[in-house]
Design brief:
The complex is a heterodimer of chains A (456) and B (97). Chain A has 456 residues and is an alpha/beta fold. Chain A has 14 helices and 10 strands. In chain A, helix 1 runs antiparallel to helix 2 and helix 8 crosses helix 10. Chain B contains 4 helices and 2 strands. In chain B, a hairpin with a 2-residue loop joins strand 1 and strand 2. The longest helix of chain B has 15 residues.
């Protein structure tokens, strides 16, 4: 059995150049060995190495959230998702690099350096769960955990050519997930195949008395692979196929849509008219919640503390000023601003109202007999490192097709549907709340027929 | 510019965040750009009585009110930068603002 731990560690060490794993090699080997000996052979994920994003608390390894402010931090408890994975026999295969506190779309905002795209080293693997996506894409692990606030599992999955699932809000316990935007956050799964990601999701899903926002439901039951898509009505929201969409991304989507039709699916154009407001809505709500959630990092209860601060407030300010990176500082400031006296109505309340309209758009589409929506996951394939760093708004716009599912609390999955000049392109299904099984059926059917590694 | 240098400094104080002089001009410019970008929401939602979105379960689930300690693997004495005799140690509060 220790052989399983060893080979998992060997595969992870081989892709060290990707800077996707934050756990030191020696520590990883030792822990994998111990875990492999302790793993329960009856578990459904017995021996499966699962890498974990560094904002999910583990007892085995440090949890830094890609931030200096938690450098060396060891959580005194582990996330429910981790407990469930271990109970199913999985091996926790180290912690993966991510944008600091999951704020970013490229891993360039990690305090530990960016991760490298496994196919093109000049490009980013996406983010914020970029390390998880890169490791799965490089074949180092069959599956990994990520987290989503605005597309942080699906966007890197799309960039790296792997599968990424964001479950319905409330499907997976968030106990032990370091909070960023509490009305949006969910733990998600990445895998080499729909089945690998879905197996992990099924294990970590289900009720948890430690998280009141986790719904009182049984774990997700995995559907069987359908023989066809007969009976499925798939909606194509026209706002997700704008005239200026990257032509190659459009070609890949068109091919996937044709293949779904050939499988018997009925395809229908629908409209989600408030889509254009999704990114601004997200960039009010997420920073507002982040500014509140991140108030706890103050150099008193955990993490390093700034030296030579005079009084206690200077200690807070210095620790936070030195500990947080540029993007996190920016979002804390924006969040504090939109919640401050006189601005709450103009920004935060408006954003929550728009969010209600965005959620209603989806309900309207589903009420008209559409089972699922199909869209591109991202407007372009992986972008170059540094390309969007100077302009935060252009970086935010890379989430344009993913944030809506987070705002509406719906499940969504990104599946590789082709390549553009060698770079992967993802297609996304957005499902109805708690109907992940239906969404997975469609993803299984598409995965079976789409030439995911061929040029579109 | 929708925010000024003084706005950023005031907000940084509210957020208990030290901002150094060198990064101020960029911060003012970037925050202004972000706030200008999200301001389109005001025009879009108007002044109607739309109900704001509420995420999660329809009703709050309560659990029995009983003590149910989940033991921690390590205590605050190991986690905190400075911890003495059952207390987190911090520098004195200089003055109330």
């Amino acid at each position: 059995m220790t052989g399983e731990g060893k080979s998992a560690a060997d595969r992870l060490v081989k892709v060290k150049r990707l800077n996707a794993l934050l756990t030191p090699v020696k520590e990883l080997r030792k822990s994998l060995n111990e875990q492999a000996s302790a793993a329960r052979p009856t578990g459904v994920l017995y021996g499966m190495p699962v890498a974990v994003k560094d904002n999910i608390c583990t007892l085995e390894f440090t949890t830094t959230c890609g931030s200096k402010i938690l450098d060396g931090y060891r959580s005194p408890y582990e996330a429910t998702a981790i407990t469930k994975l271990k109970a199913a026999g999985a091996l926790i295969a180290g912690k993966t690099n991510c944008d600091e506190f999951a704020m970013g779309s490229s891993t360039e905002h990690s305090a530990y350096g960016r991760s490298i795209h496994p196919i093109d080293k000049t490009r980013v693997p996406g983010g914020s769960s970029g390390g998880s996506a890169a490791l799965v894409a490089a074949g180092a692990v069959p599956a990994a955990l990520g987290s989503e606030t605005g597309g942080s599992v699906r966007q890197p999955a799309s960039f790296c050519g792997v599968v990424g699932i964001k479950p319905t809000y409330g499907r997976v316990s968030r106990y032990g997930l370091v909070a960023f935007g509490s009305s949006l956050d969910q733990i998600g799964a990445l895998g080499r195949s729909v089945h690998d990601a879905a197996r992990v999701l099924s294990v970590i899903s289900g009720r948890d008395p430690k998280d009141a926002t986790c719904e009182d439901r049984d774990p997700l039951r995995l559907p069987t692979v359908p023989e066809s898509l007969q009976g499925f009505v798939i909606g194509l929201p026209r706002e997700y196929f704008p005239t200026d969409l990257d032509p190659a991304v459009r070609r890949a989507c068109d091919r996937a849509i044709r293949l779904m039709k050939e499988q018997g699916a009925a395809v229908r154009e629908v409209s989600l008219p408030h889509t254009q407001y999704a990114v601004p809505t997200y960039y009010v709500i997420a920073p507002a919640e982040a500014s509140s959630n991140l108030a706890r990092f103050d150099g008193v209860r955990y993490g390093p503390r700034a030296e030579d601060a005079g009084d206690v407030r200077a200690l807070y300010r210095k620790t936070r000023g030195e500990g947080f990176g540029a993007e996190v500082r920016r979002r804390i400031l924006v969040g504090t601003y939109v919640l401050s006296a006189g601005y709450y109505e103009a920004y935060y309340r408006r954003a929550q109202q728009m969010r209600a309209l965005i959620a209603q758009d989806f309900r309207n589409a589903f009420d008209r007999g559409v089972d699922l929506l199909f869209t591109p996951t991202t407007p372009t394939p992986a972008f170059k490192a540094g390309e969007k760093l100077a302009d935060p708004v252009s970086m935010y716009l890379s989430d344009i097709f993913t944030v809506t599912a987070n705002l509406a609390g719906l499940p969504a999955i990104s599946v590789p549907i082709g390549r553009v000049k060698g770079l992967p392109v993802g297609g996304q299904f957005i499902g109805q709340a708690f109907l992940e099984d239906e969404m997975l059926e469609a993803a299984y059917a598409l995965e079976r027929v789409v030439p995911a590694t061929e040029e579109a | 510019m929708s925010v000024t240098r003084e706005d950023v400094l005031r907000i940084a104080q509210l957020a208990e965040l030290e901002v150094d002089e060198d990064s101020l001009p960029t911060l003012v410019e970037q925050m202004s750009r972000i706030l200008d970008y999200v301001a389109q929401l005001s025009a879009a939602t108007g002044n109607n009585g739309l109900r704001p979105f509420v995420p999660g379960p329809d009703a709050i689930r309560f659990r029995p009110d009983e003590e149910n300690p989940w033991p921690l693997a390590v205590g605050p004495d190991e986690l905190a930068p400075v911890f003495k005799g059952g207390f987190f140690v911090v520098p004195k509060l200089d003055q109330f603002e």
